[in-house]
Design brief:
This protein is α+β, with helices and mostly antiparallel strands. Helices cover about 60% and strands about 15% of the residues. It folds into three domains: about 100 residues, Alpha Horseshoe (Serine Threonine Protein Phosphatase 5, Tetratricopeptide repeat), CATH 1.25.40.10; about 70 residues, Immunoglobulin-like (Sandwich); about 120 residues.
């Protein structure tokens, strides 16, 4: 008596195995999502979807990506679910997943940032443009493109040109834009030389003895002015304080202030008067010093014949100058 064993087709066995493995991975992924382990959830649900397609896999994958800030990826998965073909044989769980995807997609749409990347100096559109190291299709350049919130590095490269790099930060719902300006290598070198030349001229101007002398004088005048203004402020406050003390002392002994009481009132009046005079001088010298410093800073380096001298008298204050 002979017996034979017939094995099931290998492809059928493999499909069932994939389905079972996908089911276990999806279950673990959903559990990870429920305890807020979103990276683990996204990884497990992606694996499950690769093994066997199910709308529930895609729905929870989109939700995990949403929590990770991957708004663009989540949006694409929601869109896939809204396009899912449903039939009379579709399970109720799959129908609920598709319906939930439509509702969550509507809430997500206004949150996804949009950025427009433009490239100048590339009329033929041959530049290689990348965002965060990933190449962008030429068709994306110059039109609004969805991107995830956060920092992004955009780079444009073209043979014979200097690479141009820009960094931008996008907030949720933001409409951003960035322009990359490509320069031919020769032109960029000439611009760099011109920039260095201008910088050297500026350095020479700063090293000019006359210019340096004016800067020292200007700083000195501003310093003296600041000190004098501070002294004037202190004296003004002292004047008010002593005047108040004199008034209080007079009120305490009025109307017959005699002897030491009268002397105290007179002494306080003198101190108040002295402080008031000092405040006037301090403010006057301070104003003149600050004005002198400002005028000196405004002079061009070539005007080496300029002279400025502040003056103060008991009756007036001012500036003498030749420009």
């Amino acid at each position: 008596m002979a017996a034979s064993l017939v094995a099931p087709p290998l492809c059928a066995q493999s499909a069932e195995q994939n389905k079972a493995t996908a089911r276990d991975a999806a279950r673990a992924g959903i559990e990870a999502y429920n305890v807020r382990e979103y990276e683990k959830a996204a990884d497990l649900l992606q694996r499950a979807e690769k093994l066997y397609h199910a709308p529930t896999h895609v729905l929870y994958l989109a939700r995990a990506q949403l929590q990770l800030g991957m708004l663009v990826e989540a949006r694409e998965n929601y869109i896939l679910l809204t396009r899912e073909e449903l039939s009379d044989k579709t399970s109720e769980a799959f129908r609920r997943a598709a319906e939930a995807a439509r509702e969550e997609l509507a809430a997500l749409e206004p949150r996804v940032p949009v950025v427009t990347i433009r490239v100048e100096g590339d009329p033929e559109g041959k530049a290689t443009v990348t965002m965060d190291g990933k190449p962008l299709p030429p068709a994306m350049i110059g039109i609004p493109t969805r991107a995830n919130p956060g920092k992004h590095m955009v780079k444009a490269e073209l043979a014979g040109h200097r690479a141009e790099v820009a960094e931008l930060t996008l907030a949720e719902g933001e409409q951003g834009a960035v322009t990359l300006k490509l320069q031919a290598t020769g032109e960029a070198d000439r611009n760099a030389v011109a920039s260095r030349s201008n910088g050297q001229q500026g350095d020479n101007a700063e090293r000019d003895p006359t210019s340096n002398g004016k800067r020292v004088t200007a700083f000195s005048a501003l310093g003296v002015g600041a000190i004098a203004l501070g002294l004037g402020t202190w004296a003004g406050l002292r004047n008010g304080s002593k005047r108040s003390d004199a008034d209080s002392a007079f009120d305490a002994c009025a109307p017959d202030c005699t002897g030491s009481e009268r002397g105290n009132v007179e002494s306080l009046d003198k101190e108040a008067t002295s402080a008031g005079n000092l405040a006037i001088v301090g403010f006057s010298v301070g104003v003149v010093g600050v004005a002198t410093g400002i005028v000196l800073f405004s002079l061009k380096p070539k005007r080496s014949s300029a002279r400025i001298q502040p003056w103060v008298t008991t009756e007036s204050v001012g500036v003498l100058g030749r420009f």
